[in-house]
Write a structure and sequence with these properties.
Blueprint: H1 2-13, H2 25-42, H3 47-55, H4 57-78
Helix pairs in contact: 2-3
């Protein structure tokens, strides 16, 4: 069972580009777009901040909500019963 799952993962990854490949689609189209338009669209001088906070803000908000919910759940589980 584990061997079959490993085979499927390896077979599925054969079509992926190598890490850092400059000929991949994100490197050719997405990265230049963000680098050229981040300051114009978001007025943020830091491109990484513009991508994480402005372009992917909703996704970041959901991730923060999940971590907050997990923290509250841990506090509720570990609290002392009175």
């Amino acid at each position: 069972m584990i061997g079959a799952l490993a085979f499927l993962f390896l077979w599925g990854s054969l079509d992926l580009h190598l890490f850092g490949d400059v000929t991949s689609e994100p490197s050719l189209y997405l990265s230049p777009f963000y680098l050229q338009h981040a300051y114009h669209h978001m007025h943020t001088p830091n491109t990484v901040t513009a991508v994480v906070v402005d372009y992917r803000g909703f996704d970041t908000l959901i991730e923060t909500a999940v971590i907050f919910t997990a923290g509250i759940a841990c506090l509720l589980i570990m609290r002392e019963k009175v």
